[in-house]
Design a protein that fits this description.
Elements lengths: L1 E2 L13 H6 L1 H12 L3 E6 L2 E6 L2 H10 L4 E2 L5 H6 L8 H12 L4 H4 L3 H12 L11 H18 L7 H16 L9 E2 L2 E2 L1 H22 L4 H6 L8 H9 L3 H17 L5 H9 L1 H14 L5 E6 L12 E2 L5 E5 H5 L5 H4 L1 H7 L14 H10 L9 H5 L6
Parallel strand pairs: 1-8, 3-9
Antiparallel strand pairs: 2-3, 4-7, 5-6, 7-9
Helix pairs in contact: 7-8, 7-19, 8-13, 9-10, 10-12, 13-15, 14-15
Length: about 400
């Protein structure tokens, strides 16, 4: 097997983490061009790391050999969210997936249609008639936040505004812990971002446990009834489901969709998106392929098996850390339907919403169907593109 191009450098001095996090897209693009290949080595988080930016490599790592390339148990996601479907490996992840999949089937989500419809109408109502410019990402993120808190925690913004605002602020503080230096430091009049995030997590867990113990209907009750590994699993998964992760991902996808279809030359595409739901789904998948909400993720090769693993038939030089770059891999060519996109992307979180037909996952399909009902409210291209379009 051929030797990997690039260099892992030396400890500390050869680390490229700062350059990568400043502009991960440019970092990978420059090296793909330099090495004339989509698999190369560098140093990330002061560890020799193989960067995989090809569809073939992505399918190998996240598909046929995902039992070898595992999620990092020391990752910040584990520290901030505990053992969830996003952070576990192996048999435990498979069992969690089996337990949780039933909650996200289309038939299970059908009962939430009325609530999703009311939230979408209230958040997007008369958007095209407002007299000033709107930050569409903020509008979509607010929409996503209201949806996850209402669906997963039974907290409605219009019914409990104070509690809603408190949880939204706590979720933001908690999320910032993932992008802060993992230093738990607190002194009078000042706390590190990571310390603040841990305090926010503790407060969120108190609210979640109260909902699990006292609610008599809705998602918390259904989640508690599932066969989960231990007594803390339900609370930890609720913490994940109400986190800023889902609203940010939804806002990213819908914002990219808005920007693409708002161009002058996309008049016909906008019209078809209004009239043809299948075309709308196809466009959303293609947007997700070209501008995925998550750029990639890290994996670690099993120490007992890494000697027999390969990444696109290239020798890994005994290096166990791998970065899977979704953005460049998915842009290699073809169309969204040929990649079974939700299956690939959700594999990063153990495939909670795997769709073997390669379609939009049921949660997104429900949101799309409701948002399209807003089509006739205005003629703004932004409103039309932002899925406020339908008969």
């Amino acid at each position: 097997m051929a030797k990997l191009p690039g260099s892992a450098g030396v400890s500390l001095f050869g680390d490229k983490s700062l350059e990568f996090y400043r502009d991960p897209v440019s970092f990978c693009q420059q090296r793909i061009h330099k090495h004339r290949g989509r698999v190369f080595q560098s140093r990330l988080l002061n560890r020799p790391t193989v960067f995989v930016c090809s569809v073939r490599g992505m399918r190998e790592l996240l598909g046929e050999k995902n039992h070898i390339f595992l999620k990092d148990p020391t990752d910040l996601m584990t520290n901030m969210y505990g053992d969830t479907i996003v952070t576990t490996n192996g048999e435990e992840a498979c069992l969690l997936r089996l337990s949780l999949t039933s909650l996200f089937r289309e038939t299970s989500l059908e009962s939430t249609r009325e609530y999703v419809s009311s939230v979408c109408e209230r958040c997007l109502k008369d958007l095209s008639l407002r007299g000033q410019s709107e930050c569409v990402y903020s509008v979509f993120k607010r929409l996503g936040t209201e949806l996850v808190l209402g669906l997963f925690l039974n907290i409605r913004a219009e019914e409990q505004p104070d509690l809603f605002q408190e949880i939204m602020q706590l979720c933001t503080q908690h999320w910032h812990g993932l992008i802060s230096a993992p230093v738990n430091l607190k002194v009078p009049l000042w706390s590190s971002g990571f310390s603040t995030a841990l305090e926010a997590r503790d407060r969120l867990m108190d609210i979640i446990k109260d909902k699990l113990e006292n609610d008599t209907e809705g998602f918390p009750v259904t989640l508690s009834s599932l066969p989960l590994p231990d007594s803390s699993a339900a609370a930890q998964h609720l913490l994940l489901f109400i986190s800023a992760l889902i609203p940010k991902a939804l806002a990213s996808l819908l914002t990219s969709f808005t920007l693409v279809l708002s161009a002058d030359e996309q008049v016909e595409s906008r019209r078809r998106a209004v009239e043809d739901s299948d075309f709308l789904h196809t466009v959303l998948l293609e947007v997700q392929r070209l501008w995925p909400p998550f750029i990639g993720g890290r994996r670690i090769a099993d120490q007992f098996q890494k000697k027999v693993t390969a990444v696109c038939l290239l020798h890994t030089d005994g290096q166990s850390h791998v970065w899977v770059d979704l953005l460049h891999a998915l842009r290699m060519g073809g169309s969204a339907s040929s990649w079974q996109l939700p299956l690939i992307i959700m594999t990063l979180s153990s495939g909670l919403m795997q769709q073997p037909d390669g379609g939009i996952d049921p949660f997104m399909r429900l949101i799309i169907s409701v948002l399209r009902k807003e089509a006739g409210r205005g003629n703004s291209r932004l409103v039309l593109v932002a899925l406020r379009a339908a008969k």
